[in-house]
Automatic annotation (TrEMBL):
InterPro entries, per database record: Dimeric_a/b-barrel (IPR011008), Dyp_perox_C (IPR048328), Dyp_perox_N (IPR048327), Dyp_peroxidase (IPR006314)
Entry similarity comment: Belongs to the DyP-type peroxidase family.
Domain Dyp-type peroxidase C-terminal: start-end pairs: 143-306
MF annotations from Gene Ontology: peroxidase activity
Cofactor annotation: heme b
Extent of the signal sequence: none
Biased composition (Gly residues): 338-348
Dyp-type peroxidase N-terminal domain sequence ranges: 11-139
PROSITE patterns: DYP_PEROXIDASE
Protein name: Dyp-type peroxidase
Disordered as annotated region, ranges: 305-348
Bias kind Low complexity: ranges: 318-334
Length: 348
């Protein structure tokens, strides 16, 4: 990794919504780090190999790296706000924090393209990782979730989207990156369908057919839209970029929404989660949770495309030593050993 690049090219985080996606979360097996390190710079080439002959398919792949994996893979500084996702346990509903070292968010207009790229990735990772979750998402009707509501309307666009999701000068080594939180939700469609459309609209905070937001004096404080609207003390609204996808299996009675939210800082998405699960002064919790159960939850850092092409060296390589001796004195362990085992912990 060279000097910080203020113009680092992001991965395809901002690419427009597609008809289909694969969400693949894996953990790295002990000793699998070098296989993963070898793959990351080759991802762009694999995507080109499959996507180039089918430009109308708009194949893209975003790779994210989890907090613990970062230190196993790379030496040197780490993204300032990368940490394991905190579980949010409310009195009624719980957002779990589940294992995940790598996320591959593969999107295209055609499922076969996503599938082909996923196969190539897993061929390369064979024997080095364990798959924790694999979800095939699809666009449903006119961009609706399986609750029947249009999902994605209030996403930021253009420069507002870039401003909301791409890391800038606040963390120069990782400019062009982004943070992403994923959660897999399963819906209780029997309970949902037994509600009137008016009750469903009060749950979401928008009309069902027309997708129009309710006026503030009508929208219930425990609606999904009310609790996911985050406003800073100075009145600035904080946004994230979502690309949720329905998924499911009719045979298994499984109907879900895969939530994926990109943000410049994970703090914004985490505040949304806290409000959804813990409520606020006026709301006990987000009513959408009464029919939607979070099964997974993981936070990843998405390095810029440039950093992915030329990642930092592995832990323990001279890159870290080149920064010079630390300012504090390191005392020799009392047992007289060199204390080499302690080096691992000092990187954290
Ligand atoms: C808005 C569905 C989970 C953040 C919406 C809307 C729908 C929806 C239908 C209204 C249309 C739109 O603007 O997109 C769902 C479903 C979820 C889910 C089915 C899973 C069961 C989440 C989670 C978060 C979130 C976990 C954040 C942590 C937002 C935000 C908005 C939104 C920021 C826009 C609010 C606004 O400014 O109007 N969601 N959502 N959603 N959702 Fe979700």
């Amino acid at each position: 990794m060279g000097e910080p690049d203020p113009h680092a090219e992001p991965q395809a985080v901002l690419s427009p919504l597609t008809r289909t996606a694969i969400f693949l979360v894996v953990t790295i097996d002990p000793g699998g780090e070098s296989v993963v390190r070898d793959l990351l710079p080759d991802l762009a080439g694999l995507r080109r190999a499959i996507g180039f002959p089918a430009p109308e398919g708009r194949l893209s792949c975003v790779a994210g790296i989890g907090s613990e994996a970062w230190d196993r893979l790379f030496a040197g500084p780490r993204p300032a706000e990368l940490h394991p996702l905190k579980e949010v346990a409310g009195p009624v509903h719980r957002a779990p924090s589940t294992p995940g070292d790598l996320l591959f968010h593969i999107r295209a207009q055609r499922h076969d393209l996503c599938f082909a790229l996923e196969s190539q990735i897993m061929n390369r990772l064979s024997g080095a990782v364990t798959v924790r979750d694999e979800v095939y998402g699809f666009k449903y009707l006119d961009v609706r979730d399986l609750l029947g509501f249009v999902d994605g309307t209030e996403n930021p666009e253009g420069s507002a989207a870039e401003e909301a999701v791409i890391v800038g000068d606040e963390d120069p080594d990782f400019a062009g990156g982004s943070y992403v939180i994923v959660q897999k939700y399963l819906h209780d469609l029997d309970a949902w369908n037994s509600m009137t459309v008016e009750a469903q609209e009060r749950t979401i905070g928008r009309t069902k057919l027309g997708d129009i937001e309710m006026a503030d004096d009508v929208k219930p404080p425990d609606s999904h839209v009310a609790l996911t609207t985050i406003v800073d003390p100075d009145g600035t609204e904080r946004q994230i970029l979502r690309d949720n996808m329905p998924f499911g299996s009719v045979a298994r009675g499984e109907f879900g929404t895969y939530f994926i939210g990109y943000a410049r800082t994970p703090d914004v998405t985490e505040r949304m989660l806290e409000r959804m699960f813990l409520g606020d002064d006026e709301a006990a919790h987000d009513r959408i949770l009464d029919v939607s159960t979070a099964q997974t939850g993981t936070l990843f850092f998405v390095p810029s495309a440039d950093l992915l092409d030329d990642p930092p060296g592995p832990p323990g390589e001279p890159a870290a030593a080149a920064e010079g001796p630390p300012a504090t004195t390191i005392e020799a362990p009392a047992d007289g050993s060199l204390g080499i085992g302690g080096l691992k912990g000092s990187a954290e």
